[in-house]
Write a structure and sequence with these properties.
The protein is an alpha+beta fold. The protein has a domain of 93 residues. Helix content is 28%, strand content 24%. The chain is built from 4 helices and 5 strands; from the N terminus they run αβααββββα. Strands 1, 2, 3, 4 and 5 form a 5-stranded antiparallel sheet that branches. Strand 4 and strand 5 form a beta hairpin. The longest helix is centred in the first third of the chain and has 24 residues. The protein is flat and about 70 Å long. It starts with a helix and ends in an 18-residue tail after the last helix.
Amino acid sequence: MTRSNFSALRTALLGSALLAATAAAGCSPTVATRGNLTDPELVAELQPGQSRRDDVAAVLGTPTSVGTFDPNVWYYIGQKTEKTAFFEPEVTERRVVIAHFDDAGILRQLKTLDKSNGKDIDLVERTTPTSGREMGFLEQMMGNVGRFSAKDAKGKGPGS
């Protein structure tokens, strides 16, 4: 093999390897964590009947949400998703921790829900009918032609 053939082969192999690495990097998933995805080991540190509201806040942080009708219920909601290229994101991990306190601020119940507790809901994509007739694109664009004058009733125009 001549030196120029070896150099051309090496360049071709290097280019192929670079192209393959770029393609592989483009297909790696993008991981996103949203909310407060609590650590199960930290949740295990909290003991109902012993831990107080301040202890829960110190271990888990500020709650994602507080109960609308009962401020003694705290929710920690978080999820992790992976998205590859143009595909829909896939939920890989979801956790909801619900902390119930009594009026004295003592933790009474701690419940953890995960992805298996969730249910898929089909969205309904209907539109509400409105009265009147629907205008096409050209009617919308041309509908205001001639409706506005350069001067108003007092003889003043835009910018004067």
